[in-house]
Amino acid sequence: MFKPLHGECQCGQVKYELTAPEFVAYTCHCRACQKLSSSAFSICMQVPAEALNITQGNAASRVRVADSGNDLTSWFCTVCGSALFAQNSARPRIRTLYAGTLDNPDMVPVSAHIWIKRKLPWVVLPQQHRTFDGAGDWSEEYANDMSRYKPED
User: Fold this and answer.
1) Which of 118, 123, 125, 152 has the fewest CB atoms within 10 Å, measured from its CB?
2) What is the pLDDT of residues 57-95, one digit of tens each?
3) Are 47 and 97 in contact (CB under 8 A)?
4) What is the pLDDT of residues 88-132, one digit of tens each?
5) How far is the C-alpha of 17 from the C-alpha of 113, rounded, in Å?
């Protein structure tokens, strides 16, 4: 049975709860995620929008155009600037949670890696994980829940 997950920004002003399991957990090696995380990649979880709730504080948002041409809205803490989650205009009912903000990020079941054509050369990926040169194909992960998350949503 799924137990809710909790997370917060770096300063603790914004807290959230995730009340449903993720569709997929992966690392993203694109340049934007490298800059976002100040590291080699970001750890992401795609989750149902209605299962992600801010429980304390207020997050601000900004919009940028992604490499795909889609609008990417990112929510962040206005005090410390920590990025918390994002929404791609192509998938409005999905949120991409930045898993490093979870209280227990070690529980995230990463199984794939995207934008590996931008991967830093010293990063070594597990051989059993799926990899994508660009964006990931998550149709397999969404297949069990297509009644709620149709591609046209």
Assistant:
1) 152
2) 999 999 988 777 889 899 999 999 999 999 998 888 899
3) yes
4) 988 888 999 999 999 999 989 999 999 999 999 999 999 999 999
5) 25
Is 151 a domain residue?
Answer: no
For CA atoms 80, 44, 47, 105, the dihedral sign is: negative
Based on the structure, what is the number of domains in the chain? 1
Q: What is the CATH number of the domain that holds 87?
A: 2.170.150.70
- Which pTM does this prediction carry? 0.86
In the block, which residue shows the tokens 């597990």?
126
Find where tokens 């041409």 sit.
69
Annotate 65-74 with b (16+ C-beta within 10 A) or e (fewer): eeeeeeebeb
Q: How many CB atoms lie within 10 A of CB 1?
A: 2
Domain of 17 in residue numbering reads as 5-145
